[in-house]
Design brief:
The protein is of the alpha/beta class. It has a single domain, classed as P-loop containing nucleotide triphosphate hydrolases (Rossmann fold), CATH 3.40.50. The protein contains seven helices and seven strands. It has a five-stranded parallel beta sheet with strand order 2-5-1-6-7, with helices on both faces. A two-stranded antiparallel sheet has the order 3-4. Helix 1 crosses helix 7 and helix 4 packs antiparallel against helix 5. Keywords: ATP-binding, Cytoplasm, Kinase, Nucleotide-binding, Nucleus, Ribosome biogenesis, rRNA processing, Transferase. It is an enzyme of class 2 (transferase). Pfam families: AAA_18. One of its GO terms (cellular component) is cytoplasm.
């Protein structure tokens, strides 16, 4: 396995959540506060064609999870990344030292998604995903309990507080877990 046996000097953080919860904003601010590097998986999929076509119903690329993992493997082994994606269960568990699930109240999320042009099945699917905490459950079933953290992301103040908390954690992180 490529990269096995390496000790990361910097942590890897996965920021996940329903579209519209503030993942990219949080990641961008966290990168500024920590000097970690940002990987937006959605942009990576588009840039490197790591997909198996287009989903007409949900108006998005059908990502090829195996290709994405192959593309990211060496970087994740080296450490120092903040990964931004709305799913999390296909990434290898050992890649991440912290998995953050951003959560947003449904009325706020509905407004954010409709302002992005989401409607119909795409809008309802994402709202239901948040109502039923699908991504939090996915994270909890895919990663160790002490790695997963749920954070509210309803306001600029929430995002600022989340970034401060995560930056403090990342800047004090040690490879041996102490």
């Amino acid at each position: 396995m490529a990269g096995s046996g390496r000790v990361r000097a910097r942590p890897n953080i996965l920021v996940t959540g329903t579209p519209g919860t503030g993942k990219t904003t949080t990641c961008s601010l966290l990168v500024d506060a920590t000097q970690l590097r940002h990987i937006n998986v959605g942009e990576l999929v588009k840039a490197k064609n790591l997909h198996d076509g287009w989903d007409e119903e949900f108006e998005c690329d059908i990502i090829n999870e195996e290709l994405v993992c192959d593309e990211l493997e060496d970087k994740m082994e080296d450490g120092g990344y903040v990964v931004d994606y709305h799913g999390c269960d296909f990434f290898p568990e050992h890649w991440f030292d912290r998995v953050v699930v951003l959560q947003t109240d449904n009325s706020i999320l509905h407004d954010r998604l409709t302002s992005r042009g989401y409607m119909g099945a795409k809008l309802m699917n994402n709202i239901e995903c948040e109502i039923f905490q699908v991504l939090l459950e996915e994270a909890r079933s895919s990663y160790a309990e002490n790695v997963v953290v749920a954070m509210q992301s309803n306001s600029v103040e929430d995002i600022s507080n989340n970034v401060a908390t995560l930056a403090e954690w990342a800047n004090n992180w040690r490879p041996d877990g102490s």
